[in-house]
Amino acid sequence: MELKSPDDTSMRRSVFITDMNKSGVDPEISDKINEYFSQLQDHVGKLDTHIDNVLHKHENDFLNAFKCQMFTLYTQLRELKKKTDENEVKLRRDEQLNKLQASLDWFREEAVHLGETTQFYKKEADKWKAKADSLEDDRKFLEDQLRCAKKRIKDLQEGRSQENTLENSSRISRPMTSSGQGSQKFIPTTKSGLLIMELLQKHPMKDGEFFFELEKYLNNIENAYHEALKKAKFSLSYEKKKHFNVSAQQTSVYFEKSEMENLFLECVDEVRKDVLKRRTQNMFAQKYTKRAASSHRNEKNPLTSSDKRKILELLVSNEQILILLYEKLFPHKAVNYNLFAKNEDGSQEPLPSIDELIKQVPTRLGAKTSTPQKARIFGYT
User: Which residues lie in Polar residues bias regions (predicted)?
Assistant: First the structure.
């Protein structure tokens, strides 16, 4: 805005007054006009300052409003950044939880697999241990038999050497008998003959035929003794083989799973499937909560009391289990049914039905028990 100088203003004022004097205006009016003119001049002089003050005030207000707006934007940006950081931390934590959950599932499966493998190898180790014990007993028995056989062979070899010595000596020292003599000199060829020779030396006799007959008789007795000994050894080896086969069969039967054990394991597996399904559903329902992680960490026993009751219900609902319970509860009635009898061909005889067994259950005061009540007694429908 262009400002006027004081000289220009005074000149205009003088020109204005001169024009008023020329026009012949009243002096009073002229004084008022001059007064008003001076006031207008003052207001015009102050107008620039007032405008500058207003502009400066507006500028300050604008700067204050701009500062407030920028501070608001800065606060919002800082909150958004904080939320972004929190969301990023949550995403990382969720990813880490997912990885840990996958690792936990893998380790759980590996633990179950290793547990089953450990049980299998434990049973195999027990089986081989039992076989080793049986073989150790057989080894000790065979060592004793071998020791006895070696001793017997040694005795036989000594006897054989003595017999060979006696035979050689008899060939050398046997005299030639003359044609006029009716008897021959006795020369022993066996152990019995050697004993007879000792008796002959103690009690000399001239007739040797008696000693030959006596030696023959004793030799026959010795041969019969050897034959009996061979038969006894053969029967002993046969009984030993039979005992070994029976012990092997008993060992194999001991380590084979019985039918009742398989039934119990099937019931446990069925309930375990339901437990795993329930745990999977709970895990997916509570996946993004800390409560799921804490409850999953603190769960020590996966089988609850209801699961155990369900195992018992499945086990008791089997017909064979009911028959076995009937046999244990009422032995005086179950003796009429041979539950484990076999036919001549070795096959299992058919088991009696549940209704036949229920008829044998004594009722109180002769009351008639209906079929649903009987079913409730044994826990089946």
Answer: 162-184
Burial 234-267 (b: 16+ CB within 10 A, else e): eeeeeeeeeeeeebeeebeeeeeeeeeeebbeeb
Cα–Cα dist 160/191, whole Å: 10
Contact 274, 307 (CB under 8 A): yes
Domain assignment present for residue 87? The answer is yes
Mean pLDDT, residues 262-271: 83
* pTM of the predicted model as reported, rounded to 2 decimal places: 0.27
Assess if residue 162 is contained within a domain. Answer: no
Cα 304 to Cα 310: distance, rounded to the nearest angstrom: 10
Contact 342, 362 (CB under 8 A): no
- The two tokens of residue 318 are 């089997």
* Tokens 């204005």 belong to residue: 16
Compute the distance between CA of residue 246 and CA of residue 138 in angstroms, rounded to an integer: 13
CB 339 within 8 A of CB 323: yes
pLDDT, one tens digit per residue, over 70-97 is 999 999 999 999 999 999 999 999 999 9
pLDDT at 304: 81
Distance CA 223, CA 103 (A): 81
Domain-embedded: residue 22: yes
Residue found by looking up tokens 């609902």 in the block:
317
Q: Which residue would you say has higher pLDDT here, 21 or 305?
A: 305
Q: Is the residue at 210 inside a domain?
A: no
Distance of CA 295 to the CA centre of its chain: 22
Q: Are 141 and 240 in contact (CB under 8 A)?
A: yes
Domain total for the chain?
1
pLDDT band at 23, cuts 50/70/90?
low
* In contact, 263 and 321? CB cutoff 8 Å: yes
**Higher-pLDDT residue of 375, 310:** 310
Q: Can you say whether the dihedral through the CA atoms of 167, 171, 175, 179 is positive or negative?
A: positive
**Over 70: is that where the pLDDT of 186 sits?**
no
- State how far the Cα of 40 lies from the Cα of 29, in Å rounded to an integer: 16
Give the model's pLDDT for residue 168: 61
Half-sphere exposure of 111 (CA within 13 A, CB side): 6
| Closest of 372, 333, 378 to residue 354, by C-alpha | 378
Q: Residue 86: its pLDDT value, please?
A: 93
Residue 25 pLDDT level (bands cut at 50, 70, 90) = low
Domain containing 88 equals 15-125
